[in-house]
Fold this protein.
Amino acid sequence: MNKLASEHGAGATNGEGAERIGEEIHGLMRRLYPICRSITGDGVRRSLAMMREYIPLEIFEVPTGTPIFDWTVPKEWNVRDAYVKNSRGERVIDFQKHNLHLVNYSVPVRRTMSLAELRPHLHTLPEHPDWIPYRASYYKETWGFCLTQRQLEALDEDEYEVCVDSTLGDGNLTYAECYLAGDREDEILLYSHICHPSVCNDNLSGMALLTYLARALQGERRRYSYRFVFAPTTIGSITWLARNESRLGRIKHGLVIALVGDPGPMTYKKSRRGDATVDRAVAHVLKHSGRPSQVLDFSPYGYDERQFCSAGIDLPVGRLTRTPNACYPQYHSSADDLDFVRPEFLADSLEICRMSLNVLDRDGRYVNLSPKCEPQLGRRGLYSKTSAERDVGQRDLAMLWVLNLCDGRHSLLDIAERSGLAFGTIAASADDLAEAGLLRPAAIGDKE
Ligand code: ZN
């Protein structure tokens, strides 16, 4: 088991525990999967109500037309039914069978038309003839259907009855927060988008994983306060930022969590700042995790990190995914389903999240109280091996690094990076030295 995980209760590393938690996260995804979500509407409300069975959630409704920076809250969309029927009355495309069949945010339609008229409204993935694409049209009022290439090829010249029984009108945009107060008012922000219908990795995996992360953190001592935000992508983070602009100074670190259940390696995308503590903490955890992983520089393309890292906001918020968006074939299609996302990868992603948060929560600066030459460690029982041994254990080495660099200027993460040792080993040494009276936490006024 990873040192840090064992010392800070990250838990999910042992086989049985990881299997169970992975299955539970997948179980929540299975419950959420059939619901037709969008950027507004009852699908989001139903999903949040379900998640509220697991964690305390405060739900916010923001009326259509509310100005939010350069945007306005859009009309609310709801759908009861949608289909295309042939002249024999058979539903050849049926929203009831899969909610991806309807272009998300389609305006209401009731018409009869020829295949030629219908054709421009149909979307397929010719390179994957059995998959239904996922399409949305939030900001252009139109309608359409998505179907498999095989379904399309089976459509004859006929008169088709097209029905989109939807409503698009004044209503609300819905989002939710789970706030867990810690010792400090300073916050760590965790964000998941919630607006995709029946697609799993993107982003039921993020919604379910963050629900379980909040549930786990609830029972633990926290130095930081944690704010989980569940909102639709783009318009949701813009809405949230506009409504919380005066409080953004409290956010010291943040992560957008998305696409965390596929088999690909963990991918961390740095914040716009590039050298924020969260960037260094996650990179450190990934490096010491022993798993394949990659760290990418910031770019203004992707998910809601684009808003958190926009020029006038510039928060230290990175993004943690496995395979990034658009980099796996199943992305935004019916093949991103409950089989594509596996419990073991959900558990693995949860563990990486928890270890990264542990580093952020535990990091700090200390002052060596006996800085003139090395203090006598043997006398205090701090050396695990006799000084005659040439092979100094990791813990002993960590102790020497901590004593050397705890001058009030270096954080434990600085020391972990510089020594090449795992953060957990450095933090444990700091605890031992503090207990032995050789170290104290740096106070305001100590040099930084
Ligand atoms: Zn997406």
The chain has a mean pLDDT of 94. Residues 196, 202, 325, 332 surround zinc ion (CB under 6 Å). The longest helix spans residues 343-362.
